C-alpha cells in the first residue's frame, strides 16, 4: 500500500481522538488536524482541560502521545489492534477520564485487513509528502496574509486535504475554499485547488480567463486545480492569485 494511503489511514487514530476527547462541533472541526513544519507531524487539538495531544509523525512513521510524559509507538509492523491497545493504555495513563473509541462516522476508500500491518515501504515517498505538506502550509499561509483573508489551515482527516476557507472582504458576499488535495478520480496526483462560493452555492468558472498554471474545471467540482508535483512556492502563489482574481472580477 502506498505511503500516502497508510498515512491517511493512520491519521484516523487522531480523528478518533478528537471525537473521543474534544467537544463536538457541527462542522467536524474537533477532528481536524494541524501540520507542524517543525516536527513534520500531524497534531490534534489539545484535549479538553489538558495540554495533551496525539501526533502522527511522518519523519519517524510513529504515533506520538504528547504530554508531560510523552511516549511514541512506531507504526511499522503494527496492526490496527495493537495501536488501539496502545492508545487505550496512553489514555488511561494520562488520566483523561474518558475512553478512547475508534468509531469513525465516515468511510475511507481503503483499509487494513484484519491482522495486516503498517509498513514503511518507501522513505522517499514520505519525504516527498513532507515536502508537499510543508509547501501547502507555507503557500496558503502567505496567500492568506497577502490577501488579508482569515482562516485556520487544517488537515481534514476524512479527505486528507490541507484546507482553508475565508470570506472575501469586498462586499460581494463571496468566499473561497483553497488547499491541497490527495489523488482522486479527478487528478491522479496531489493537487492544489481553489473554489468560490456565494453562500452555499458553488460559483461557475466557465467564463473565467485561462490560468498561467493549472486549469479551471466546471463539471462536478467547480474551481481551479493544479497538480502539486514539481511545483514550488512561486508557481503555487501565482496559481492562487490568478484564480482569486477570477472570482473577484
Number of strands: 12
Distance between the termini: 44 Å
The backbone outline, from C-alpha atoms, is globular
Range of helix content: 25-40%
Q: What does the average pLDDT come to?
A: 96
Could you characterize what this model shows?
This protein has two domains: 3-121; 124-248. The protein contains four helices and twelve strands, in the order αβββββααβββββββα. It has 249 residues and is α+β, with helices and mostly antiparallel strands. Strands 6, 7, 8, 9, 10, 11 and 12 form a seven-stranded antiparallel sheet that branches. A five-stranded antiparallel sheet has the order 1-2-3-4-5, covered by helices on one side. The radius of gyration is 19 Å and the shape is globular. Helix 3 packs across helix 4.
Task: Give a short synopsis of this structure.
The chain is 30% helix and 24% strand. It has four helices and twelve strands.
Task: Provide key terms for this protein.
alpha+beta; 4 helices; seven-stranded antiparallel β-sheet; five-stranded antiparallel β-sheet; 249 residues; single chain
Amino acid at each position: 500500500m502506498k505511503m500516502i494511503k497508510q498515512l491517511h489511514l493512520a491519521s484516523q487514530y487522531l480523528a478518533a481522538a478528537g471525537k473521543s476527547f474534544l467537544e463536538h462541533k457541527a462542522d467536524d472541526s474537533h477532528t481536524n488536524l494541524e501540520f507542524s513544519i517543525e516536527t513534520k507531524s500531524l497534531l490534534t487539538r489539545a484535549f479538553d482541560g489538558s495540554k495533551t495531544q496525539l501526533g502522527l509523525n511522518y519523519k519517524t512513521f510513529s504515533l506520538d502521545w504528547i504530554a508531560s510524559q510523552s511516549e511514541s509507538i512506531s507504526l511499522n509492523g503494527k496492526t490496527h489492534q495493537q495501536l488501539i491497545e496502545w492508545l487505550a493504555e496512553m489514555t488511561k495513563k494520562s488520566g483523561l477520564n474518558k475512553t478512547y473509541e475508534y468509531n469513525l462516522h465516515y468511510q475511507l476508500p481503503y483499509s487494513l485487513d484484519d491482522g495486516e500491518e503498517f509498513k514503511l515501504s518507501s522513505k522517499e515517498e514520505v519525504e516527498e509528502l513532507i515536502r508537499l505538506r510543508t509547501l501547502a502550509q507555507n503557500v496558503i499561509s502567505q496567500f492568506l496574509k497577502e490577501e488579508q483573508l482569515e482562516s485556520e489551515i487544517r488537515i481534514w482527516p476524512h479527505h486528507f486535504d490541507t484546507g482553508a476557507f475565508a470570506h472575501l472582504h469586498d462586499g460581494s458576499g463571496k468566499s473561497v475554499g483553497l488547499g491541497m488535495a490527495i489523488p482522486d478520480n479527478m487528478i491522479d496526483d496531489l493537487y492544489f485547488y481553489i473554489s468560490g462560493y456565494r453562500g452555499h452555492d458553488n460559483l461557475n468558472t466557465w467564463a473565467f480567463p485561462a490560468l498561467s498554471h493549472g486549469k479551471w474545471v466546471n463539471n462536478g467540482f467547480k474551481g481551479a486545480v493544479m497538480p502539486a508535483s514539481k511545483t514550488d512556492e512561486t508557481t503555487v502563489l501565482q496559481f492562487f492569485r490568478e484564480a482569486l482574481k477570477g472570482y473577484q472580477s
